Amino acid sequence: MLDHILSILIFFPLLAAMLGFVVNKDSIRAYGITVTTVEFILSLWLWYAYDSSVSGMQFMENIELIPAFGIAYILGIDGISLFIIVLSTFITMIGIASLTDTKRVKNMIITLLVLEMTMVGVFASLDAILFYVFWELSLVPMLYIIGAWGGPLRIYASVKFFLYTFAGSLVMLVGMLFMAYFYYQATGEWSFSLLEWYRLILPESFQYWLFAAFFVGFAIKVPMFPFHTWLPYAHGQAPTIGSVILAAVLLKMGTYAFVRFSLPLFPDAAVFFMMPIAIIAVIMIIYTAMVAYAQEDIKQVVAYSSVSHMGVIILGTFALNVEGISGSVFLMIAHGVVSGALFLLVGVIYDRRHTKLMSEFGGLASVMPRYATIFGIMMMASVGLPLTINFVGEFLSLLGFYQQSHMITLLAGVAIIVGAIYMLSSYKKAFFGEVTKEENKNLPDVNKRELVALIPLVIITIWLGVYPKPILEPINNSVESIVQLMHDKAVTPEAKSAIPNLIKDDKLSSNMEAH
Amino acid sequence: MEMLLYIALFSPLVGSLFAALFTAQKKTLIAGVVPSALLFTSFVASTLLLIQVLQGNTINVELMTWMATGNLYIPFGFVIDQISVTMMMVVTLVSTIVHIYSIGYMDHDKSFNRFFSWLSAFVFSMMVLVMSDNFAGLFIGWEGVGLCSWALIGFWYHKESATWAANEAFIMNRIADLGMLIGIFLVYWNTGTLQYAEAFAIMPTLDNSTLTMIGIFLFIGAMGKSAQFPLHTWLADAMEGPTPVSALIHAATMVTAGVYLIVRSNELYDLIPNVGLFIASLGAFVAMFAASMALVNRDMKRIIAYSTLSQLGYMFAAAGLGAYWVALFHLVAHAFFKALLFLGAGNVMHAMSDELDPFKMGGLRKVMKGTFIMMTLASVALAGLFPLAGFFSKDLILEAAFAEHHFIIYSVLLFTAGLTAFYSFRLVALIFHGEERYKIFGIHPHEAYKFMLVAMSPLAILAVIAGSLKMTYFEMVTNLLPATEYHIHSHTTYWIMTIGTQLFVGLAIAFAYKKYIGKVKEDKEFEKRFCYKVLFNQYYIPHFYDEYIVKPYRELSYIFWKQIDLKIVDATVDFIGTSLYKTGEVTRGVQNGNLSTMLKWMVAGLAVLLVLAAMFTLVATNADFLLSVYHDLGA
Predict the structure, then answer these.
(1) What is the mean pLDDT of chain A?
(2) Which of A160, A386, A409 sits opposite B140 (nearest CB)?
(3) A160-205, pLDDT tens digit by residue?
(4) Does the distance separating the beta carbons of A413 and B178 come in below 8 Å?
(5) Are residues B91 and B196 in the same domain?
(6) Residues B396 and B513 in one domain
(7) At A501, phi and psi to the nearest 5?
(8) Which residues of A touch B65 (CB under 8 A)?
(9) Phi/psi of residue B71, nearest 5 degrees
(10) Which of A30, A107, A311, B246 could hold A285 in an S-S bridge, CB 3.0 to 4.6 Å?
(11) What Rg do the C-alpha atoms of chain B give, in angstroms?
């Protein structure tokens, strides 16, 4: 069973979703919780069986689909994708467990299960076409969630979300086709296998163009400035569960793809574009944090804060050293947990008051003390306080980039200031002060169903903040192999010097270069 | 030994979590007593550790790994040496006293339990800060105390001013923390480690400009926590918090973290005397700057806060001049008498129904004898009169400045000593002497609970005798810190200086008494003067920050959102989308299914194709000719 665990992880939710159509409407919630719990346990088993001392791919599956064009069904995970898969199954599970009373709840749960399949699929694929298929498929359930359960502007928001990301992915697809073609030219065989692509050393000029093509697809997904404007609409209109999954997992597809595709495939281009991308990242960090500060709607604050944090992740990724990339991968997990929790928390108050405007609240700390406490913890995690999960990622990402540039890191470090400004001022508006509105005086505190989702998130936030080793170590090992691969592959001397060589023995590395 | 270390470190955490269990419930005495008892345990453990250290044993333990990636390795490591044990003694002693005092002070507060939870959490963070053996651990404590300070300043969160001050403190500290973080990055990339011992061992091999950068960025971090100019405004606003918080956090412990950092990094700052001189100059400036604001202020707690700021300036002046042990000594002495002063102020506030304006008090010594004696003692110690604690520590700083030939710093600090004496006794005179002005406000003052006074008494005793511990202390810390004794060569000069200082301070006290002990008139003429206005409005610095930083930031944020994000970035995206859509709308006529229209388009298309074909043939047949023309143009 362990040999095919990745396939099981991908297709079990799909199968369950199809069976879900025949499940009675009253028991669909229990069904959904059961399925996602089983899925989550499977992913934990995957983690348990994962050998963290091995840096390469594990649990590989390889079935040829279209041999003539080298398209195959290749799955495999390493320390980078493992935890994002666990995160996906976990967030889906607690998302369904805490699902509030929804219209057409059956459709919602089936959609979520399909979405879960696509998420696991994206992170487990090692074939570009397979990756692309899951990548695009993930849009459909999300489109449906926003379009069917969203707010008043839901059609506009969902179509914008779909078309925008879709347009970007098409450019990426073209890039993939060219990549396969170059592979064909170099070896005489077609292949879309990522691991085989890794071995291909491309001239720099090719790398630049391909990097740009992939970049468009990834940057829109992340989303990077100035491609981020679909995100506030999507979050603003999406129901709570949609926002949670969008922020926690779907955005990570973009950042994950940078680590999985852009860096190891195009190391010279990554070095070449490092500074422009870092500048974009700095803009993301500061500019969107300021926009977040100006918001009146608390959900939009969290939405823009996501973009700001994504800037730190991108910066860490393009530090191109082990500290930075490990930090950015860790921050992907951290941001998944924290932003997921924050969106859930916004959902709690929205269910009670049907508004998200901060001016409608005030003084909630005395009415809903437990809610205020959990929100406070998550806010402080988002601000990046040490001993919370976010700090580890943020610290390492910035630390990593410091090796590349002093000024950029100084500017990006402003994240810790502007982050505190928008978060604390929002918290003050919503929770502190006197209770001014009559409706707020008797709001019930968080109930059991909400706590089921929130308590585990709080525990993870602090546990991994204090003791990140269980996750950081496997990530570190896999990142080291990627960095070494990049160093060995790099063509230009600038790239060679910018990407550290982890093999200390000079003789050994020169041997490898000779080969 | 290790056990003691962990008891000292984790007892406050246990106390905090214990009190946190009761936060949702009504006030229970146990939520205050248990954390206090645990803190006392921590104090006892620290004392035992102090005895060990006095015997020459130091400990270094590693609890577990925190972060490890690439070459970076950060453990949760703790060190007990002469510096950290000194800090631990101060922290645990003052916080035990403040905890016990708070049981009485917060007696009527409905959030009693929450208060103790945060207060103990603060002590834990502070212990992490001083006990860590690496920069990252220091940063954990650094941010932890910031968090607790935020929660405690904004403890009465229904008050707008309190939550505003809390956010201001947090954000301003964050600005400095960025400097600290960059300093840490610099240390890591230049030495390859964040452990103090290893990093400081490598530093002498680094070039001077790198060291200067490290020194400056770390000092920026210190400036935030210790509220040095220009990041000082939060400290006075932080007085919105409950008074025990002001005593513990904003006088005795947290604000001295910056000084601790400089003292801890003495090996670094010894290598860069230029930065040290800058620190000393800034310290001297802040000492006088803050003292001047205290001269005219009409808020009891703010006056003491400015005095704290001023004394922090003294500490930095000493540390900057390389007299690290002197700075640490003043830190310890100051913690005792300043905490005492604040706790006394808390008693007065309770007696006066939270009135803070000393001009509305007067004559309180009759009803509050205990508080009167203790606050007077604290003020004498603060002013630096022989033989109280302040005399020894402050005099040492003056001597150090003199002996190092920094006469400008010396004169500034000497002048400030006079100011200190004046504003301290202005406060004492206004509160405890003169007519009973409070009577017209219908307030009936009463002395605080007896156990609160008893709790304060150790501080009073220490404020008196701390000076006599100087030699023991000196022998202990100079195992780690440079053991420079600052001797003024000529005996005559020394005695003239010391006696002169004492006389100067004495005169300042006498002047304060003379001016404020009798009938206090509202001096309208004086209040209209320019210099009074400047001082009373804190040199208009808060106003400046508000007008030129906070407001523009808010407006710019709004512009970014409304103008740039919605009107430019998003509108561009929508424009591309709609123009595609419009193009489709316009050209759909081509395919409307009407045969005659479609035939027309077909003919038009054919014509275009023919024209293109003709042009292509023309170009192809005359290629040679065209090329030659092209070359001619090029030539």
Answers:
(1) 91
(2) A386
(3) 999 999 999 999 999 999 999 999 999 989 999 999 999 998 988 8
(4) yes
(5) no
(6) yes
(7) -95, 120
(8) 469
(9) -90, -5
(10) A311
(11) 33
SS3 assignment, position A355: coil
Residue A122 lies in a domain: no
CB A389 within 8 A of CB A333: yes
Structural domain of residue B630, as residue ranges?
595-635
Domain carrying residue A422: 273-467
Within this chain, do residues B174 and B115 fall inside the same structural domain, yes or no? no
Flag whether A385 is in a domain: yes
User: Do B347 and B266 fall into the same domain?
Assistant: yes
Query: B426 and B544: one domain?
Result: no
Chain B residues 33-92 with CB within 8 Å of chain A:
64-72
Of the listed ranges A227-231, B430-434, B612-616, the least confidently predicted one is B430-434
Torsion angle, CA of A220/A223/A225/A229, rounded to 10 degrees?
A: 90
- In Å, how far from its chain's centre is CA A314? 11
In chain B, how many domains are there? 4
> For residue A263, which of A250, A253, A273, A276 has the smallest C-alpha distance?
A273
Question: Of B118, B133, B148, which closes a domain?
Answer: B133
ipTM: 0.91
Within this chain, do residues B108 and B159 fall inside the same structural domain, yes or no? Answer: no
The alpha-carbon gap from A411 to the nearest alpha carbon of chain B, in Å, equals 10
Q: Is B110 on the interface with A (CB under 8 A)?
A: no
Does B181 contact chain A (CB < 8 Å)? yes
Angle at A180 between CA A175 and CA A186, to 5 degrees: 125
CB contact under 8 A, B174 and A416: yes
Taking every pair of C-alpha atoms in chain A, what is the biggest distance, in angstroms?
Answer: 76
- Cβ atoms B341, B423 nearer than 8 A: no
In the stretch 530-559 of chain B, residues with CB closer than 8 A to chain A read 553-554, 556-558
Structure tokens belonging to residue A75: 């799955």
Element (H, E) at A26: none
> Packing angle between helix A415-431 and helix A369-383, nearest 10 degrees?
170
Q: Do B227 and B325 belong to one domain?
A: yes
The verdict on pTM exceeding 0.80 is yes
Q: What is the DSSP string of A23-88?
A: S-GGGHHHHHHHHHHHHHHHHHHHHHH--TT--S-EEEEEEEEEGGGTEEEEEEE-HHHHHHHHHH
* Number of domains forming the structure of chain A: 1
Residue B420 and residue B291 in contact, taking contact as beta carbons nearer than 8 Å: yes
Closest chain A CA to residue B136: A386
Note whether residue A454 is domain-resident.
yes
* Location of structure tokens 């983690």: A47
Higher pLDDT, A87 or A3: A87
Q: How far apart are CA B561 and CA A370, in angstroms?
A: 32
Q: What is the DSSP string of A259-313?
A: IIIIHHH-HHHHHHTHHHHHHHHHHHHHHHHHHHHH-SBHHHHHHHHHHHHHHHH
Asked if B516 and B426 count as a contact pair (C-beta separation under 8 A), the reply is yes
Question: Is A78 a domain residue?
Answer: no
- Residue numbers in A near B117 (CB within 8 A): none
| Polymer length in residues for chain A | 515
* Same domain membership, residue B561 and residue B527: no
